[in-house]
Amino acid sequence: MAVIEVNHLSKYYGRTRGIVDVSFQVEEGEIYGFIGPNGAGKSTTIRALLGLIYPSGGNARIFGQDCIEKGPIIRRDIGYLPSEVFYYDNMKVIDLLKYSASFYPSSDYQRIYELSEMLDLDLKRKIEDLSYGNRKKVGIVQGLLHSPRLIILDEPTGGLDPLMQQKFFQLIKSENQHGASVLFSSHILTEVQKLCSRVAIIKEGIIIGIEDMRTLGRTSYKRFVIELAEVVDENYFDLPGTANLKYEDGSFTFLFQGEINQIVDRIHKHQIKNLIVEEPSLEEVFLHYYEPEGEQ
Amino acid sequence: MNIFIQEFKISVVSALYWTAAMTLFILFFMLMYPPIAAQAQVMENLLNNFPLEIRRALGITTMNLSELLGFYGFIFIYVLLIGSVYAMKAGLSGLSEEIRSGSVDFLLAKPVSRLAVATAKTSSLLTNILIQNLLFLTAAFFIVGAYQDSSFDKSVFLQVNLSLIQSQLFFAALGAFTAVIAHKIKSPLPIALAIVFIFYILQMLNDALGDGKLLYISPFAYFSTPRIIEQGIIEWHFVLLNLLISTILISLSFCLYQRKDLPA
After folding, report:
1. Does residue A81 share a domain with residue A66?
2. Dihedral sign, Cα of residue A62, residue A65, residue A71, residue A73
3. pTM of the entire structure?
4. A253: which strand partners?
């Protein structure tokens, strides 16, 4: 069963584009990545799912029910960590978390203490005195304290140090193993790579690809770094199947998909100073998607 | 209920500060009552030199400053202003608080309907206003009552004071409505001051012109203290009109709040 079904969802702010015709599905028990550069429409999509903004077209369903009509009921089983974490400044952390817990019938107050201890969060401090990273921790605890069936994370790792990020990922994985589905939005590919099984890629408000993480990992692209002893034309390796070709200080860098012999053909005629052939990082594969039209 | 308690907790202190300000204001000026009353004739002669329009605008044509209630009514106009600014500010803050502080994604992502949020916030605001009025009325009663040698009409005193809550209801409703139609309100107090004073100036203009055409524009005219003291009774059609306008404004803001896109 799909936990989230987004069908042709659009949002315009006056004439300004928010998102256009966004569709994707998150299956039960899956960790689903949602990736794109800043301003691509990730938060807009998520905020529409939560009923914070009203779509201009299309609809979205969570647990099979309409997000707008059944919003309050659906949200009982959602844990949401917003990208910007602001709360009522005058409150103490513990009071805010108890307030948050009071909204959910399934809240376990003991979990506030467990999670805070795990994340090293001081419950007695005032929200306004907290650093960005510590506010994020408050966000994580308030998002998880009711053991939600669906966890929505919008750029969750900003402000967290690497050690804390690791703890956070473990936490999300363990929630997932206990049955929670996760929608994980980010502009950092490596973190999505670590967690997600599938990923939707959004750019300028439009979904430009939905990929299985394993196929993406096993992409047929190879990354070449070639340094030749002689000077050749900078478009020397511009063959069909070449992408992201760069020439700098006598060294070529590019991605190539296709018959490797074509490249070998080109290099064996020259003296080679350096040659590296490797699996490209996902970052580089996605670079296509990120680049504005026409520059690919 | 949890939202109501939370809202009430964060707003009640401010309500009490404003109540204290109103009470201190009355206390301070009532201390001046004996010397002014003693020389009321001199004072009135002085004021009578002002043009009639200005005296009307200041609400001192029909007021007898040598009488306890007349004097109280004269200074009460300013309490009405302070109270209205508070109500407008609180009305503006309530429904715009999350948008201003960026906590929309906290509260409105909880399993509650927008209607429940708006109802809880409005109830908290009305509770604050009610508490404020009860406290102020009690304090004012004892302050005015301290001048035992001059008796006063308690029914008229009550009716003068009742205009506070009615005017506050209007401005709270107007504040809520403004909060919902505005995209984002950065600081409620300056807006509240501006709007309340515009309505007050309208009332002064209305009194100065004295032709009654502007009478229905400003709630300050509905509950004009000099008129209440003169006639000894609140005019019911104004009470009902004010109630109607306030209800419409609050209902509209509830409807609009439910359909509003909440910026992060």
Report:
1. yes
2. negative
3. 0.82
4. A225, A246
Name residues whose C-beta falls within 8 Å of residue B111's C-beta, 6 or more positions apart in sequence: A72, A73, A74, A75, A76, A103, A104
Summary count for chain B: helices (H), strands (E):
12, 0
In a shared domain, residues A109 and A211: yes
Q: How many domains would you assign to chain B?
A: 1
Rounded CA gap, A224 and A245, in Å? Answer: 10
Contact residues on chain A for B259, CB-CB shorter than 8 A: 54
Classify residue B264: in a domain, yes or no: no
Give B144-163 pLDDT, tens digit per residue.
888 766 667 788 888 888 88
Instruction: Copy the structure tokens of residue B72.
Output: 């109280």
> In sequence order, what DSSP letters do the residues of B115-161 get, joined into one string?
HHHHHHHHHHHHHHHHHHHHHHHHHHHHHHHT-TTS---HHHHHHHH
For residue range B73-132, what is the model confidence (pLDDT) as tens digits? 888 888 999 999 999 999 999 888 888 887 888 889 899 999 999 999 999 999 999 999
Residue in B101, B105, B111 nearest the CB of A104: B111
CA distance B62 to chain A (A): 48
Residue from A220, A268, A38, A88 nearest B11 by CA: A88
Structure tokens at A224: 């070449």
Which residues of B lie inside 8 Å of A (Cβ-Cβ)? 2, 6, 10, 101-106, 108-113, 116, 259, 261-262, 264
Q: Range of A27's domain?
A: 2-215
Owning domain of residue B90: 2-259
| Contact A146/B at CB under 8 A | no
- Domain end, chosen from A215, A238, A260, is at A215
State whether A73 and B104 contact (CB < 8 Å). no
Amino acid at site B11: S
First-last CA distance in chain A: 37
Does A50 contact chain B (CB < 8 Å)? yes
Q: What is the ipTM of this complex?
A: 0.81
Residue A112 located in a structural domain: yes
CA A103 – CA A77 distance, rounded (Å): 11
- Joined tokens for residue A192: 């999505």
